[in-house]
Write a structure and sequence with these properties.
The chain has about 475 residues and is an all-alpha fold. Helix 3 packs antiparallel against helix 4 and helix 9 runs antiparallel to helix 10.
Length: about 475
């Protein structure tokens, strides 16, 4: 045996042995790979049965990578793409199936359905015809084939309506077609243009969002969407969309300058809100005026700035300025909030009937608006109260005055009207004024009494409740107090 082995020409035998080993290893590798592919297919089927489409898609991806020549793996992945509404990828997979196996009718029918949903009616018709040739009794293909020519005619008619500027008819026909072809970016774009022409910008925004999702990576789509949202006064939403444009092209000739403008306007409008909440009403007014210097053309953005001017002037108790700002806002848009702010300014000027009317107009616009209901009640009470003492006017302070401001005003008024400073008939007037000053201080420095007064009821009104037999001890004569002024 050893002699036999020693006589072998190993230089000739070695290459054959190497090839044999490689062939065995390759067969083993293919078996292992196929087992993995089958495992992924099985997992994909299980996830699909449970409705977990994204997980199913992950395993079908792995199956296609493991066996790129198996038409069934492409078909299964294509069906998941179809279920997820990913038309582009579903179309690629069904087309790949038909390249590998041209007579696979199920894949051709699925591809025809994708074409139909994309409103690619000519391509859909060709595939439906092929299905009926290979399977004459296929009901789905036969029914779709009967409709597809009619759908193509309707699409051409919708386009003709649009060219003829009959935008309403074009939009209605596009809506009908989208029931059958919801994945068509072309149809949604057509309907969006019709809505814009009809000044129905909210509907146009919805369609352009859909176009952007269907087309993807469209800088023009994002710019158009941002422009529409800005026209609607939705500045923050417009800023989000323009940022998507800049992700695709940081120096886009339209998106970049528009982004800079949107960023300024958005920051100033947010500043109006923050300053109003922190009671910096003059700061709010300043930010609103800056918006108006940046934007003069876009109606609803100008309206937002004027609305903040109206609100913040009213809260600052700059009543005349508030009325002017509110009138400017209402010229652009009848808005319940603005009408309520206008009513508050009118109340500050003691124009009670006009204020009540403004609150009623707000209720007509927004039925059930609690602020308007409360405003009417408050205005009616203030109107009645105007015939009595107004403690804010007695001390000469705003209704928003702090306790410290009220005490300071009280000390000043008490010094001015102290009866010891007057003689004769003037002394009697001073006594009355001094009593009113003391009453004003009592009410406005007591949180509960001040709340009652702000609600329209005088807590010191003797008709409001039966007087206490000790009332004269509680309020007493002003001459019994000793005042110490710093």
């Amino acid at each position: 045996m050893m002699d036999y082995l020693s006589n072998i020409n190993w230089n000739k035998v070695t290459p054959c042995l190497v090839l044999l080993v490689l062939e065995v290893l390759l067969d083993f590798s293919e078996c292992t790979s196929q087992a993995e592919v089958n495992k992924h297919l099985e997992l994909g089927r299980d996830f699909l049965a449970r409705g977990q489409l994204s997980d199913a898609l992950t395993h079908y991806h792995a199956a296609v990578e493991g066996d790129p020549h198996n038409y069934l793996t492409y078909f299964k992945r294509g069906t998941v793409y179809y279920a997820l509404g990913k038309a582009k990828f579903a179309l690629q997979d069904f087309t790949k199936v038909l390249e590998i196996k041209a007579d696979f009718t199920a894949a051709r029918l699925h591809r025809a359905n994708v074409y139909l949903k994309l409103a690619q009616y000519r391509e859909a018709k060709e595939d439906y015809l092929q299905v009926t040739y290979s399977d004459p009794y296929n009901v789905e293909a036969a029914e779709a084939l009967q409709r597809v020519d009619e759908l193509a005619d309707e699409l051409r008619l919708a386009e003709a309506y649009y060219r003829g500027r009959d935008h309403r008819a074009a939009a209605e026909l596009a809506t009908h077609l989208l029931d059958v072809s919801p994945w068509s970016a072309q149809l949604r774009q057509l309907r969006a243009e019709c809505y814009i022409a009809l000044n129905d910008l909210f509907s146009a925004v919805s369609d352009i969002r859909s176009v952007n999702r269907l087309q993807q990576d469209s800088t023009d789509g994002y710019f158009r969407l941002a422009s529409l949202l800005y026209q609607l006064g939705h500045v923050s939403d417009a800023l989000k969309e323009i940022r998507e444009c800049l992700k695709l092209d940081p120096e886009h000739k339209s998106c970049f300058p528009f982004y800079k403008k949107l960023k300024k306007v958005d920051k100033l409008l947010l500043d109006c809100e923050e300053r109003s909440q922190s009671r910096d009403f003059l700061g709010c007014v300043d930010s609103a005026n800056k918006v108006l210097r940046i934007e003069e053309q876009v109606t609803l953005v100008v309206f937002e700035a004027r609305r903040w001017l109206c609100s913040c002037y009213a809260k600052e108790e700059a009543h005349a300025e508030a009325l002017a700002a509110c009138a400017g806002a209402l010229e652009l848009r009848r808005d319940a909030r603005v009408l309520c702010d206008r009513a508050d300014a009118l109340l500050g000027l003691d124009m009670f009937d006009d204020a009540i009317q403004s609150f009623k107009e707000a209720l007509e616009l927004e039925e059930g608006l609690q602020r308007a209901k409360d405003g009417i009640s408050r205005a009616q009470k203030l109107q009645k109260q105007s015939e009595q003492r107004d403690y804010y006017k007695i001390l000469g302070v705003k209704r928003t005055a702090t306790k410290q401001e009220i005490i300071k005003a009280y000390r000043k008024a008490a010094q001015k009207w102290h009866p010891d400073n007057f003689q004769g008939d003037e002394k009697k007037l001073a006594e009355k004024k001094f009593i009113d000053v003391a009453a004003a201080k009592e009410v406005l420095t007591d949180a509960e009494k001040r709340a009652q007064f702000d609600a329209g009821a005088d807590p010191l009104d003797p008709e409001r409740a039966a007087p206490s037999p000790f009332a004269h001890f509680q309020h007493g004569s002003p001459f019994q107090f000793k005042f110490h002024f710093n």
